[in-house]
Specification:
The protein has four helices and three strands. A hairpin with a 5-residue loop joins strand 1 and strand 2. Helix content is 41%, strand content 18%. It is an alpha+beta fold and 118 residues long. The relative contact order is 0.21.
């Protein structure tokens, strides 16, 4: 029982970092850019793909066709929270995600993202 409490405390102390990551298909160069308030969710995306339950049907099909070894996961940016009382983390994550989508052109035939409007 002591070990369980120790593990729970360790979990509570894990630093949560917001940021943007990419999942890249090395076979065809397509990329998915994902902004998240917790970069540890990157492992959840890998698990979704492994289980065949990804919401991104195109990427899921290519994962199934090419296999897990054809995909790389990379952190593109860690977002540093601001002390500004008007700072909105969700807006910051969305803005940085959009920045990386445009920079890497991870939409259309080059990627798995759709272009966000507005």
């Amino acid at each position: 029982m002591n070990r369980r409490k120790e593990l729970q405390q360790m979990y509570k102390e894990i630093k949560i970092e917001p940021g943007v990551y990419a999942i890249r298909n090395v076979k065809n160069g397509k990329t998915l850019v994902v902004g998240t308030p917790n970069l540890k969710t990157m492992n959840g995306k890998r698990f979704e793909l492994q289980m065949g339950t990804s919401y991104n049907k195109t990427m899921q099909q290519e994962w199934n066709d090419y296999g897990e070894d054809a995909f790389e996961f990379e952190i593109l940016e860690v977002i540093k929270p601001s002390e500004d009382p008007f700072y909105n983390l969700k807006d910051a994550v969305n803005e940085r995600e959009e920045h990386w989508i445009m920079k890497l052109q991870s939409y259309g035939e080059h990627g798995y993202n759709s272009i966000k409007r507005g």
